[in-house]
Structures are given as C-alpha cells and as structure tokens.
C-alpha cells in the first residue's frame, strides 16, 4: 500500500447554531492543549475531584455519585439505563420525540420490558397520562426527556412526574442532554434519581466526557443487582472504584476531555448557573422574536418552549435541506433539519452555551431570513433583524 499524502488539518470556521455541538469557548480549547498527565497521576486525581464538584453545581445536586462518563452523551445515556434497568424489569418511556425512542431501544438491550406513555411529537407528556400508565403497567423505571432535542420541547411539571413515579416506587431517569447548563434543572429539588447529559450542548465543550449523576437510592439499586450489566465498560459498580474514594484503575480516562469539561464547568460557575439560565432565555427569546417578526412560526407553545433548541417551522413550499445548504455555503452557519415525525417540517436552531451570543443570533436571523426568501418564502427579513436588535 502506498504511503498516503494527507494535507494539514484545516476544517472550516463555522458558527454552530444547530442542535449540537455548539461553539466552544477559547478557554476550553486552551485547556485541551495543556500537558497530558496519566489518568492515575495525583494531579489528575485532584482534577477529577474538581470536575465532580463542578458537575454537582451544574446539576444542582449533592449526589456523591456524579461523574463524567468516558464517551459521548449516548454513553452517559446507556450507562444510566443499562445499569438501572435489570433484565425482566419494566421501563416506562415517552413517545413524543426521537430520544424517547432511543431510551426504549437501550432499555430493551438491557433486557427490560418497555411500555410507553403516548404524546404527540412537539408536545410534552401529560402528568395525567403518566399516572394512568403507572396504574396500568406498574413500571420499575420511568424515563423522560427534559429537553427534547428533536422537537424543541421542554418538559414542564417535572416534580409532578417524579412524584407520580416515586408513589409507585419507581426510579426516575431524566435525559438532560440539551438542558444541563442552559435551562433550569434542579436534580435534588425535583427529586430526579438519575440524570445524564452531553457536554457539547449548553456546556459548549467538545464531546468525549459526558455528565451523569445518580442518587444514593439509585446507586444502591445498581450495586445490588443480581446480574452485572451487559456492558463492562459502562458498569457503574466498576467505575465506582475509579471515580470513588479508591481511585482504582478501570480504563484510561480521556484526560484532555476531562480538562475541557472542567474548564467549561468553571465558566458555568463563574457566570452563575441561574444567570446562565437567564442568559439563554434572553438570547433565545430574541431569536424567537426575530423569527416570528419575519413571519415564520415556531412549533412548541410558549408554555414549553425550549430556549436551547428552537423548532422553526418550514414555510410551505420551501426545501429545508436547501436552506440548510445555503446557510452552510454562504455564511458558514450550521443549523439542522427535523427528525422522525417532524422531518421536513421544522428547522432545528440551537442557542446553546457559547453560541448563545447576540452576534450569533443577529447573524442567524438575518441569514435564515435571506435564505428562506431566496427559496420562495414570504418573509420580512428587515423586521426580523430590527426585532433582534431591539431585544439584545
């Protein structure tokens, strides 16, 4: 085989306003360029402790068992479901988005029986329907998506949902991939047993070390399993030896990704978590108002609008893929199309972390309006731009 000749790495400089990843803060990139140490080095052990404490702050929890899982957000998702759901147990999952379906698939692979609580794509779960599903199926585990990336829906009434589950002695797992660090989330106050997230959304960190937290009761369930989980790599009873007091070898942690996550979480703490939630509401609110001023709708009702992921309606007769290509080619601006039941009906526009800045929102609204107009939509680009300028 001939020796390959590959040019120097030179990816395009995009503005990331899709469903993730988001723009990474320069401080996080610098952290990744700092010297590598071993994953059992005393200096790295100290960094592990600091990262865990910062994660507790972002999750709003005192859970001792709060770690970054080595892998993308799907790894923390599988660690949560694969450890908590035991073979033969029943897990109740939602049908109102793509990632509820992924929960179901992971539960089945863990040996669980899956039952569903129905809600249309683009709407949250109704607590009354959740209560009815518990009465009918008596599930052992209940999973819900706090911020559904496929629909732009934020699940309200979380304490009511967790209360229903705990009245039936079920463990609650929350998908917080698109809410951690950008949308109000209170793990302890809302009585969530297990929560997982991805670093590349509102934390504005490259993927590779993904947040996970478990309550004492949830971890006790994991440690008292009759059979080990099917994944050795994601077995939390083994990872406890590395991330717990013992600091025993399990695998080689992604050291530079932990550096990055630590720095991203430092930025969260410096800003203040509640101020950060407010910033996302304000910045995404300007985006939402600008889009609506152009004459384009957003899918979710205001009551469960998700600031970090905005579902922009595709005007009749407009090719969503062509609009996405226009933004990428003409503006180096990334957004995404809809998934599943909403494919072709919405454009998914993120407003997350370091991407949730006035300059990005101004660019997005003007560029999106121009692309839609050029593709035949009846939009008022100037009205959108003026509205954003007034709000920011």
Automatic annotation (TrEMBL):
Keywords annotated in UniProt: Aminotransferase, Pyridoxal phosphate, Transferase
> Is the keyword Transmembrane assigned to this protein?
no
Cofactor(s) needed by this chain: pyridoxal 5'-phosphate
Domain Aminotransferase class V, first and last residues per copy? 37-338
Sequence segments annotated as region (Disordered)? 1-23
Gene3D superfamilies named among the record's database cross-references: Aspartate Aminotransferase, domain 1, Type I PLP-dependent aspartate aminotransferase-like (Major domain)
What domain of life does the UniProt record list for this protein's source?
Answer: Archaea
Q: Name one GO biological process term.
A: glycine biosynthetic process, by transamination of glyoxylate
Which InterPro entries does the record match to this protein?
Answer: Aminotrans_V_dom, PyrdxlP-dep_Trfase, PyrdxlP-dep_Trfase_major, PyrdxlP-dep_Trfase_small, SP_NH2Trfase/AEP_transaminase
GO MF annotations for this entry? Answer: alanine-glyoxylate transaminase activity; L-serine-pyruvate transaminase activity
Recorded family membership: Belongs to the class-V pyridoxal-phosphate-dependent aminotransferase family.
This protein is called what?
Answer: Class V aminotransferase
Q: Which organism is it from?
A: Candidatus Halobonum tyrrellensis G22
């Amino acid at each position: 085989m001939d020796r390959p000749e590959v040019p120097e790495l030179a990816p395009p400089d995009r503005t990331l306003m899709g469903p993730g990843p988001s723009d990474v803060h320069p401080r996080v990139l610098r952290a990744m360029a700092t010297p590598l140490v071993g994953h059992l080095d005393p200096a790295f052990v100290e960094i592990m402790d600091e990262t865990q404490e910062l994660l507790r702050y972002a999750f709003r929890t005192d859970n001792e068992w709060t770690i970054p899982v080595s892998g993308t957000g799907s790894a923390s998702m599988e660690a949560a479901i694969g450890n908590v759901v035991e073979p033969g147990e029943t897990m109740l999952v939602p049908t109102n988005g793509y990632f509820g379906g992924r929960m179901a698939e992971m539960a089945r692979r863990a040996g669980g029986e899956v039952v569903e609580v129905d809600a249309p794509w683009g709407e949250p779960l109704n607590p009354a329907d959740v209560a009815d599903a518990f009465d009918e199926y008596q599930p052992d585990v209940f999973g819900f998506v706090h911020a559904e990336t496929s629909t732009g829906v934020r699940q309200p009434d979380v304490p009511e949902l967790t209360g229903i589950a705990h009245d039936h002695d079920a463990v609650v797992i929350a998908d917080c991939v698109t809410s951690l660090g950008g949308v109000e989330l209170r793990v302890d106050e809302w009585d969530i047993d297990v929560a997982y997230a991805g670093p590349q959304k509102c934390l504005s960190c490259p993927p590779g070390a993904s947040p996970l937290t478990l309550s004492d009761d949830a971890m006790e369930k994991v440690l008292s399993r009759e059979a080990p989980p099917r994944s050795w790599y994601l077995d939390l009873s083994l990872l406890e030896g590395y991330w717990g007091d013992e600091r025993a070898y399990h695998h080689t942690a992604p050291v530079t990704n932990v550096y990055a996550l630590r720095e991203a979480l430092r930025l969260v703490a410096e800003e203040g978590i509640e101020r950060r939630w407010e910033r996302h509401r304000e910045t995404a609110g300007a985006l939402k108002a600008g889009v609506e001023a152009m004459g384009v709708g957003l899918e979710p009702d205001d009551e469960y609008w998700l600031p970090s992921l905005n579902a922009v309606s595709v005007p009749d007769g407009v090719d969503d893929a062509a609009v996405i290509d226009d933004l990428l080619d003409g503006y180096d601006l990334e957004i995404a199309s809809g998934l599943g039941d909403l494919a072709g009906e919405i454009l998914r526009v993120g407003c997350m972390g370091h991407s949730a800045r006035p300059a990005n929102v101004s660019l997005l609204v003007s560029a999106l309006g121009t692309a839609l107009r050029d593709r035949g939509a009846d939009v008022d680009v100037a009205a959108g731009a003026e509205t954003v300028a007034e709000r920011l």
